[in-house]
Specification:
CATH class of the largest domain: Mainly Beta
Structural class: alpha+beta
Mean pLDDT: 77
Largest sheet: 12 strands, antiparallel
Number of domains: 2
Radius of gyration: 30 Å
Strand content: 25-35%
CATH topology of the largest domain: Beta-galactosidase, Chain A, domain 5
């Protein structure tokens, strides 16, 4: 029966992993005809498609074409050593930001451009007819570090928009300071307004990016919240659980200290001098064929909402804040001089964020010495393993001792199979006589888990690893594919090396169980895990490989250690009492 159950279990496990790995990813549904029609008939509706800056919109979805995207925008560029901020007079806003330190792709001299495909320019007024992205503002001032736009709505409301590149020790070069002034030109009190400022559009980083890291985020009362693109898409859930339909928008309430949109490595973060009252997150179609429904055909956009109080006649009021558009570098975002509202939490390290932050700081420090991110990952992994040698050594010794008494434990199970209470009593007596702690092999390992999980989480969203080469790998943040077989099967070297170390570890590590079914199941696990992790980024695979290699060397040393003199073997007498025997004859 055990053999049959083992076979069934292995087959089902392989089938599950195979389904996850080889099945096509669910594609987002196309916008319903009713939504498209509604958007096409009003300029106040949310755009359903995104457009590259300066595009005429000819290749975008019908909804955007109906809004008559501008074709003759006047571009004003403010630049420093790190960014090139390109402003447009349509909307009087920040159309896109080129990040000079980050190339668009491997070997390219062109910089990565955030918000190149967008529903709205960043900081554009959203759902505000007459002052939104379709309204042309007058550029009234410009210098090397500042540009000012002006527009008037219905001869009653003047809007002035001032953008300044920040400088100095209390600023970051990726930050843009924004000042939005509303002036009431009439003698009457203007009613209160809700103003929404666009955060930009986060798009997949490439054609193979399914967009799992596309999220909006906000900080409220010291807590950070993340809204992934999948929350807006229809989903069948897991076996029908948590299934939900598509939704056009997700509305989040305030007060909001900062709001952001992000992909895997880059983000735009708006921090108002006064808290925002809400955040609206929308899924948008990018500038691709309307028939293209692949996961990377959609981006995510957000708009932070602010409440503007009533303005007295001939008076004015201002909204001010700072926009960061750049890489998700923890060391940069954790700088308390330029960022004072926990903007580093945009890294979204998850439950083990405390450990991720420590390890990323260590890895960055090591990189400063070796100037190679692959070597930095190796040295950080070895440092972590070295620190935890006492714990893993204690766990391995405990497992070795447990393996030696397995025959006696099996004898106890057979003898008292109908009396669990006596079986437990005899087992504890055996542990006591051999000075074995039954949890001695687990507790030391539990101490190390948060650090290794933190390292694993940290490597998935570190912008510094993007396009960083190492050995044969061109990009540590991607798979280290060296060839493709049969036109669809990638050959990834590092995951195979990782799997090989797992197989060797399995043979070297003493097994605490003599159950044949469990032993067979454990032998399959390295192969299953390798299959599941085959498309891991090279950075993650490198970490796992080095970790496994160190563990193999450590286990070889442990296996060669001489065991301490053990107590004489024991026998079980009547009533489950353990009786010490004389030394057995040789």
């Amino acid at each position: 029966m055990d053999k049959k159950n083992t076979t069934i279990g292995v087959v089902l496990l392989l089938a599950a992993f195979g389904f996850i790995y080889f099945s096509p990813r669910a594609t987002p549904p196309a916008p319903a005809p009713a939504e498209t029609t509604a958007a096409a008939n009003t300029t106040a509706a949310t755009p359903l498609a995104a457009t590259p800056f300066g595009s005429s919109g000819a290749n975008t979805a019908t909804a955007l074409a109906a809004q008559q995207a501008p074709t003759q925008a006047t571009v004003t560029t403010l630049a420093n050593e790190f960014i090139e901020a390109r402003f447009t007079d349509f909307g009087g806003a920040l159309a896109e930001v080129a990040l000079k330190k980050y190339p668009e792709k491997q070997g390219s001299k062109e910089p990565f451009v955030f918000n190149h495909l967008h529903a709205d320019p960043m900081l554009a007024l959203v759902d505000f007819p007459g002052l939104d992205r379709n309204a042309r503002y007058e550029r009234v001032a410009q210098s090397a570090t500042e540009v000012v736009y002006r527009a008037v709505l219905d001869n009653r409301l003047e809007v002035t928009r001032r953008y300044t590149l920040t400088a100095g020790p209390a600023a970051d070069p990726y930050q843009v300071r924004h000042e939005l002034t509303f002036r009431n030109l009439s003698d009457q009190v203007s009613p209160p307004m809700r103003v929404a400022l666009a955060l930009g559009t986060a798009a997949p980083s490439g054609k193979d990016d399914p967009g799992l890291q596309l999220k909006s985020a906000y900080s409220s009362n010291g807590d950070q919240h993340f809204i992934p693109r999948s929350d807006l898409e229809a989903s069948n859930g897991i076996f029908g659980l948590r299934a939900h339909g598509a939704t056009p928008a997700v509305n989040s309430g305030g007060p909001i200290t900062w709001a952001a949109v992000k992909n895997q490595y880059f983000t735009s973060i708006l921090t108002g001098d006064e808290p925002a009252s809400g955040l609206v997150t929308r899924r948008v179609k990018l500038a691709v064929s309307a028939a293209d429904e692949t996961p990377n055909a959609y981006g995510l956009t957000g708009a932070a909402q602010f409440e503007v109080k009533a303005i007295a006649g001939k008076a004015e009021t201002k909204l001010t804040g700072t926009l960061y558009v750049g890489p998700m570098e923890y060391r940069r975002l954790a700088n308390g001089n330029a960022f004072k509202a926990d903007q580093d939490k945009i890294m979204d390290f998850g439950f083990f964020k405390f450990f991720s932050q420590i390890l990323l700081t260590l890895m960055t420090w090591i990189h400063g010495w070796v100037n190679n991110w692959g070597v930095a990952i190796i040295l950080t992994t070895l440092s972590l393993k070295t620190i935890f040698i006492p714990f893993t050594l204690a766990a391995s010794k405990s497992a070795k001792r447990m393996a030696k008494i397995q025959p006696e434990l099996q004898a106890l199970r057979e003898k008292y199979k109908d009396n669990p209470q006596k079986q437990q009593q005899a087992t504890m007596e055996l542990f006591k006589s051999r000075k074995i702690n039954p949890v001695g092999g687990c507790f030391p390992i539990l101490i190390t888990i948060p650090f290794f999980m933190g390292f694993f989480s940290m490597l998935q969203s570190t912008a510094e690893l993007r396009l960083a080469p190492f050995l044969w790998a061109l990009d540590l943040s991607s798979t280290d594919t060296i060839a493709t077989l049969f036109g669809f099967l990638p050959v990834n070297i590092m995951p195979v090396l990782m799997g090989a170390t797992m197989v060797v570890q399995m043979h070297l590590t003493p097994s605490p169980s003599v159950d044949n079914a469990q032993a067979k199941m454990m032998k399959f696990m390295p192969y299953i895990f390798t299959l599941f992790c085959y498309n891991f980024s090279c950075a993650l695979s490198l970490y796992s490989f080095v970790n496994g290699l160190f563990t193999i060397v450590q286990q070889l040393v442990i296996n060669r250690m001489k065991d301490p003199v053990e107590a004489a073997p024991v026998a079980v007498g009547p009533g489950g009492k353990v009786i010490k025997n004389v030394t057995p004859k040789k």
